[in-house]
Design a protein that fits this description.
alpha/beta
Length: 234
């Protein structure tokens, strides 16, 4: 799926996105709980870059948990950023946010961030080289030693266990109230538009982009999360 198609897809989903995926909140909350521990040692006045910020769910969580932090919400979808901005205004942290519509290469190339989040974003880059370049762009914007929390779908799709995991993942989404038409769209996307790679391979891609060896801190079904520290010489 080309960038324009992906952006248009998320523009269309923005207004109802949170409601559509509300049933999956327990997984998201578990990820955020562990994210708090991962980011606990960041400075009290940390600057955090949220890549693919979407509707701003993780920013809202982190803003409540760490009241001195400032955030840059980066997303190519203007519609998603509008929802994110509304959330920030409603929950009272808009004054601590910058909202930037675009991709990483439209953001200033300066190492000013103490931390970054990137949840369910890099999986849409089908070519490993493009995925490495994506993570390198994040590393270049982190201070030396800065932390990235990245989460994506990951599995060895050629292993017999994958069919079991995929079936369970679809059953989970169905039981969480995800609508049938969305489930069908997800099935098609997994086969065509999402790079579901073995977890070890994803970690290798991140490390090759200028991070120390990523540490997996989260897994729920197909979703894996890694904590990654920018290497001093990146």
């Amino acid at each position: 799926m080309r960038d324009e198609e992906l952006r248009a897809l998320f523009d269309q989903q923005a207004a109802g996105y949170d409601q559509q995926w509300a049933g999956m909140a327990p997984i998201r909350e578990a990820l955020y709980l562990l994210l708090d521990a991962l980011f606990a040692e960041l400075p009290a006045d940390a600057r955090v870059l949220c890549v693919g910020a979407g509707t701003g769910a993780e920013i809202g969580h982190l803003a409540a948990r760490f009241p001195g932090w400032r955030f840059t919400a980066l997303d190519p979808s203007e519609a998603m950023l509008d929802v994110c901005r509304q959330r920030a205004q409603r929950e009272g942290f808009a004054q601590r946010c910058e909202f930037h519509a675009g991709y990483l290469d439209t953001l200033a190339d300066e190492p000013v961030y103490d931390g970054a989040t990137c949840f369910l974003v890099s999986q849409f880059l089908l070519e490993p080289q493009a995925r490495t370049r994506f993570f390198r762009q994040i590393a270049q914007r982190l201070k030396p030693g800065g932390l990235l929390a990245s989460a994506d779908l990951a599995a060895d799709i050629h292993a017999p266990a994958y069919e079991v995991l995929l079936r369970n993942w679809m059953t989970l989404m169905s039981g969480a109230g995800v609508q049938p038409q969305m489930l069908e769209r997800v099935r098609i996307a997994y086969a065509r538009d999402v790079a579901v790679l073995p977890a070890q391979q994803v970690a290798g891609i991140i490390q090759a982009a200028g991070f120390a060896a990523p540490v997996q801190f989260f897994q729920a079904g197909l979703m894996h999360g890694w904590g990654c520290q920018r290497a001093a010489d990146a």
